[in-house]
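Sequence in, structure out. First:
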Amino acid sequence: MPEFKNHILVCDVERDDGIHCGNKGGAEVKQKVVQMLSKYGLRSSVYVSSTGCTSQHRKCETDQCSMIVYGPGNKGTWYIANPDDVETIVKEHLVDGNTVEGLVNDGMKINLDA
């Protein structure tokens, strides 16, 4: 079994109400994640999966979804992203090791200093 350095979870849950992440572009975001991981040579070190509803869909605009990036030390960052944001997250977060502050879901920040 391969060892992954990171895990990206993308909410792509669809519901009849039309307001969940899957209704707003979750599948497109997940597809773009896979494309960008391939572009940057990260497919073998980053696991990508769907996640159940994270209850963050009301914070997402019509083309956004909730996306969580977990990495070393069990550190996780919650993002709200659309397909156009994915390359920035992959490049800045996974390649360069920096959180993309402008895309962070502020409602899901965890204060590790508390």
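Second:
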Amino acid sequence: MQHLKESLINELRRMDLLSQVSSVLGWDEQVNLPVSNASVRQRAEQCAAIAEIRHREFTRTEFREKIEEIEENLNLEDGELAVILREVRRDLDRATKLPSEFVSRKANHQSASYHLWVKARKQNDFNSYAPTLEATLNIAREEASLVGFEANPYDYHLDKHDPGIDAKSVSEIFDKLSKSLVPLSERILALTEKKEIPELLGFPESKQETFLREVVANLGFDFSRGRLDIAVHPFCSGNGTDTRMTTRYDPDNPLDSLFSSIHETGHGLYEQGLPAKWLGTPLGEAAGMAVHESQSRIWENQVGRSRAFWNHWESRFREFFPEQLKEISSEALYLAINKVSRNPIRVDADEVTYNLHVILRFELEQALFENALKISDLPAAWNEKAKTLLGLVPANDTEGVLQDVHWSGGAFGYFPSYCLGNLLAAQLWETVKSDLPDLDSLIEKGEHKPFLSWLNRKIHVHGRKMNLFELTEHATGKKLSSTALLEYLESRYLRLYEES
């Protein structure tokens, strides 16, 4: 059995190399690729070729027979092997149902779609992009049907990103959250209208980059195993050996690049914290995107926007930008860091209103997959829900339906992961504050290793052993719910705006 186990792991790692190549191609596409149509077409063909090769290798008969042989002789006491087989079997059963032609066509379309989205977003032209998005949605439906989810295609895409969840379970959680969050956000927004919150203008991008790189390294990100670049939409890709992160800069919005970087650092720390010895196998992979988002959001918000964090970093921030901050008091700066406003852009939204942005997208995706909403009617539906949930109407489609990169790549079902991740982050924060009662004083000293080590033990080390719901209970002792998040938001933001 041992030789079969080693052979399986070697096979998985070999196939993971192809996934890594695909990941680097995707990173390069958003960071370095020339803008000519010929470059774009060639990259689409490259992505399609790698996807087809990886799919062929994974689904070949010899590999399936190896899995079946191990399953027949499985030693139930080998828990690690049992997890690997369970997750590989799940992935293999689905991949086998997808024809190579479909895999290649999908990858080609995703690559081309991304560039069409970038152009449409820049030109505020949804109509030119609508046929491409329609094709992307049809491909997503086709994939769900091929693997056996024809009756409930949206459940398939939710489960792809977070195994074990479906539209019903997400709806139940989001309905409870929105009933309390909408009135809470309105209470806090009413308080913010009475405050004068300074604008942060004229921050040189080069100094922003130097400062945030210092912050990112201090949080624990290992730059010898990763890098930070610029892209249209911040993201993190790769694995713990080669972790690629991106951000973007705006001289009149320095907090955007900083918190985008801290957010992506959370993703990067998760990847770098996964068990290196299991790289290329399910035990060396993240539990799902909601868990991944919990790691990015907890560093960005619970840590990065806390008083303890800024008690440590404010003086350094002022060293980099003395002229820009000389008229801004510490309290005013902290209000700017934790500004709550009616912002149409999800990635720029504050903690209080952010989850309403996610609920908006979840409801629209449901309607699309249920054929209750047409692509052509999507901008109007978006604006209507934005008015209901956020109390605003985007000025244009660039600020509305075109703002996110996710649909260009067919990542339907991803958005709920952000909100579910926020729920888990709040429960983890509640738990770690009990486990590490001196956490605030450690953060104030710039000492983040104890918290990172705690996350390593509670989350990172487990890989894909547990799904979102199982891991939440394992790490916090409670089922996933909106309770901790609502208590956290009320405690931080009502107190902040009532006392300031």
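Remark: The beta strands are 226-230, 236-238, 243-247.
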